[in-house]
Amino acid sequence: MAGASLLALIDKIAVVLDDVALMTKVAAKKTAGVLGDDLALNAQQVSGVSADRELPVVFAVAKGSAINKLILVPLALAASAFLPWLITPLLMLGGAYLCYEGFEKIWHSLVHRHSQKQIDTEPQKVHQELVSENVDLIALEQEKIKGAIRTDFVLSAEIIVIALGTVQYASFYHQVLVVSAISVIMTVGVYGLVAGIVKLDDAGLYLLRAGSYKKVQHTIVGKIKRVFGRALLGFAPRLMHSLTIIGTIAMFLVGGSILTHGFTAAHHILTSVEQFIGASLPLGVMNTIAMALTPLVFDMLVGLLAGAIVLFAVSLFSKFLPRKDA
Question: pTM score, two decimals?
Answer without folding.
Answer: 0.69
